[in-house]
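Thread: quick sanity check before group meeting

JM: Hey all, I'm pulling together slides for Thursday and realized we never actually wrote out the predicted structure for the chain we discussed last week. Dropping the sequence here so it's in one place. If anyone has concerns about the input, flag it before I start.
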Amino acid sequence: MSSEDPAHHHEHGGDEDKKGGQDSWNDGAKEYDDMGLATASSVKCVELILPFMKKVKPYSFNAGSGLKVLEFGCGPGKIILGLSELVSEGVGMDLAPNMISIFEAAIESKGLSAKYRGQVLQKSDASELPNAYYDLVLCPFVLHHCSEPSSILKRLVEAVMPSGHLILAELVGMELSKELQEEKGVHGWLDEAKIDGLLEGLQLPNVKKVEAAYATATYDGESLSLVLYVIERVAV
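JM (edit): ok, ran it. Output follows.
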């Protein structure tokens, strides 16, 4: 496990957190985009998400119609772009304008401008998300940066349409010094049990945990352990 944690993402809670996080990730956007272990983590997420979504929503792909997908805290957008075969409308949102610029350049270079767009978030509380709109919402490596993760989780769930899914990705077993955690804006690591607790505490109707899948991303002798936590907004 790398103690430098290059796969970190960057949503925060509160205006001061937003400003600090935005500046930090703006400054490091190109470096993050080039990080091999961060890319490997995104690829591993795609490898898990693709077969899951094909299993739960096969009718969408059989009919030739894709899904409306949001990646909240998208960074350079490698996860949502890796899901392009599923997507009819893909939106990547991030606090850092430079991350969105990299994402939009990748959209153009891949010829995907007809169905993808980036959006710079003006607030860190997910209040800009529409209600019950997306088939799939992705939140990769974000919640451990949030001072109030339960409120962000609630808004993410609310953005999912009935029968849709929210997929969280978090890092597992990280060991950083207090100084590094403060530097990287880590409010607290979220494992499967802690996410269980957040979800149960919200007491949202017609919402259920589907599964938690574990994986390891590796690059150049370094590794990161990941958990992908899948939530369904049950149709009634």
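AS: nice. Residues 38-233 form a domain with the Rossmann fold fold (CATH 3.40.50.150). The two ends are 43 Å apart (CA to CA).
JM: adding both to the slides.
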